[in-house]
Amino acid sequence: MLPRACNQLVLSKASPDRCVRCEHPAGAHGLAPLERKPKTTNIWADTIRPATCTSPSCRRQIYWADTVDSGKSIPFDRRPVALIKTAELGTGREKWQIDLASTHWATCPARDAFRRRR
């Protein structure tokens, strides 16, 4: 049984919806849960392509897209949806700002096998 909710709401980055002191949900303190800004990045709309995860334990249908900043590819569980669409000046190439919450790295059972060593 959890102790009574404390008078001070203390949150951490690891668990932003639970108080660190009493472990109650943030709402138990009479405060609204914090709204988190989604982590986003920009991708080129014309680089979205279907593929299959190469992990033998997964083999799910995924989509790849190239980032605007580095040109690296990011896998997604479903076709990315643009939060904001813009066009590059001069070329007219379409850029999409997308939420990183739907990346395949978050859901793939073999995600550690694809992680590069530092």
Describe, in plain words, how this protein is organized in 3D.
This protein folds into two domains: 33 residues, no CATH class; 75 residues, no CATH class. The chain has one helix and six strands; from the N terminus they run ββββββα. The strands form two sheets. The chain has a three-stranded antiparallel beta sheet, with no helix packed on it. Strands 2-3-4 form a three-stranded antiparallel beta sheet, with no helix packed on it. The mean pLDDT is 79.
Range of strand content = 15-25%
Element order: H for helix, E for strand: EEEEEEH
Look at the helices and sheets and give the structural class. mainly beta
Largest sheet: 3 strands, antiparallel
Strand order of the largest sheet: 1-6-5
- Overall geometry: globular
Radius of gyration: 19 Å
What is the count of β-strands?
A: 6
Assign a percent range to the helix content: under 10%
- Give the termini separation: 42 Å
Instruction: Report mean pLDDT, rounded to a whole number.
Output: 79
Which regions are unreliable across 5 or more consecutive residues at pLDDT < 50? Answer: none
The total count of helices amounts to: 1
Structurally, the number of domains stands at 2
